[in-house]
Amino acid sequence: MKLAPQGGSGMDEASSDAGREKAEEIEMAQNGGKRNMDKLSHTSVLLRECVEALNIRPDGVYVDGTLGMGGHSLEIARRLDRGGRLIAIDRDRRAIEAAGERLAEYRDRVTLVHGNFRDLSMILDEQGVEKADGMLFDLGVSSPQLDDPERGFSYMADAPLDMRMDVSESLTAWFVVNKWPEERLRQILYSYGEERYAPRIAAAIVRRREQAPIDTTLELAEVIRDAMPAAGRREKQHPAKRSFQAIRIAVNDELGAVSQLMEEAADRLRPGGRLAVVCFHSLESRIVKNAIAARENGCTCPPEFPVCVCGFRPTLKTVGRKPVFPSEAEVEANPRARSAVLRVAERV
């Protein structure tokens, strides 16, 4: 199930998604099948909550592992003095170029790095940083990537099947769709997209590609839609939404990257340093939640033992009684924030 903000519901989320998708369909119809890029703007999700969670010191060292358009990084940089430092990482070179302009005023304290947050320890070593005072990771695909039809992330515009966050990587959505065996397709659709019609969709993809390669996003969306029963096509969200999510996650190994990140991040924080992670779907949220719990309550001794003898020492503690969800006002202003959840932990 998708995580929803307090006071929301799955039906509310579906309605919001359906309404936004319909508006996008109308806009693209009016613009020859393309989004109006002049209208695109990026709003950082849970911006105030994330920055406050880091408990920023002006002379501290911080990491924004998902730079994107630089909204979070800008607010962090504004709170640093010349003795502070922000290392901002992104696997998308276009994002680094765009955010670099936005952060130009603070380049004396900001270091931009093209890389993957799964390589956090290596990046910090290369930057000469042993420990950081805080880290922020806003997981998933960014709005600019979704909104740029040429990137092939969207089922709402026609584009080559790509979906790479880092275009220097070799694996594309085209290869996944046209070359992976049916069983592997079925597995990722079910596991990464939580798509209950995964067997039907995987079989339909294989049948179609035997006739001719599936080259574009709209071709794939059509195959997915046609493979679903009538009940599935009547759902308020787009029929291809879950499948596109699954393929995107597979192309970018998003869950593997999150798992590796959560294994390393705590060890690169100073005592008292904060780790803040924003998740947008249950799969990555589960990884983050379990990783924090393992660092906080990982004793393996039998419950009947009076004292711990396994040698476990906690390295993280959860900050706040519950995860943080976007407010109703934020969701109203930015519907893509609806499924966001922020988890915060502190190094001990």
Overview of the molecule:
It is built from 15 helices and seven strands. It is of the alpha/beta class. It is globular and about 60 Å long. The longest helix has 21 residues, at 10-30. The protein folds into two domains: 10-39 and 144-252, Putative methyltransferase TM0872, insert domain (DNA polymerase, domain 1), CATH 1.10.150; 47-138 and 255-347, Rossmann fold (3-Layer(aba) Sandwich), CATH 3.40.50.150. It is 43% helix and 12% strand. Strand 2 (85-90), helix 4 (93-102) and strand 3 (110-114) form a beta-alpha-beta unit. Residues 1-41 have low confidence and may be disordered. A seven-stranded mixed beta sheet has the order 3-2-1-4-5-7-6, sandwiched between helices.
Estimate the strand proportion. Answer: 5-15%
Total separate domains = 2
Structural class: alpha/beta
**CATH architecture label of the largest domain:** 3-Layer(aba) Sandwich
Average the pLDDT over all residues and give the rounded result: 89
Number of helices: 15
| Largest beta sheet: strand ordering | 3-2-1-4-5-7-6
List the helices and strands and how they pair.
Layout: H1 10-30, H2 47-53, E1 61-64, H3 71-78, E2 85-90, H4 93-102, E3 110-114, H5 120-126, E4 132-138, H6 143-147, H7 173-179, H8 182-193, H9 198-211, H10 217-227, H11 230-233, H12 241-252, H13 254-264, E5 269-279, H14 282-296, E6 316-318, H15 328-333, E7 341-347
Parallel strand pairs: 1-2, 1-4, 2-3, 4-5
Antiparallel strand pairs: 5-7, 6-7
